[in-house]
């Protein structure tokens, strides 16, 4: 079922199981009223809009700072650690990003060549290095990523305590779906009852 957009062209519906899973092979919905189903679809569509907005914000920040996604994730980690007084080693960056030590070395070389980080002697472990973000990069990140984060913080702060708790539970439950894996046929039968 395609929907017409204001310009008259059709739009593919992405989150409505009535069109994407009409036989209820994956999404059980027969227990929901039409109103409840419409609300669920509206939430999923809002999540899609948020993912798209966040992707666009991330891409804009990456373009502004002329960096890739892993580079930006490493810089955010380094900035947060600096603010907390935590010394960051290449191994800590590798663990945070889930990449190999060889990939981490290449990433740090790129960031150092771009003037984004400094490699310094570790203050307490002479066998290791401490990695720090340069002040110029910290200011640039604050001007791009920091401002976006502040706007998101303000939206959440504007909610009631109950709304925040509901959202926290919602996002925790969504995060748990990533760990759940694919259900087995037995799981499907258990959830159907």
From TrEMBL:
- Its domain of life reads Bacteria
Domain called HTH marR-type: residue spans = 34-176
Q: Which InterPro entries match?
A: HTH_MarR-typ, MarR/SlyA-like, WH-like_DNA-bd_sf, WH_DNA-bd_sf
Q: Bias category Basic and acidic residues: which stretches?
A: 13-28
Q: Where is the stretch described as Disordered?
A: 1-28
Please identify the protein, giving its name as recorded.
MarR family transcriptional regulator
Protein source organism? Microbacterium marinilacus
- Show the SUPFAM superfamilies listed in the entry: Winged helix' DNA-binding domain (SSF46785)
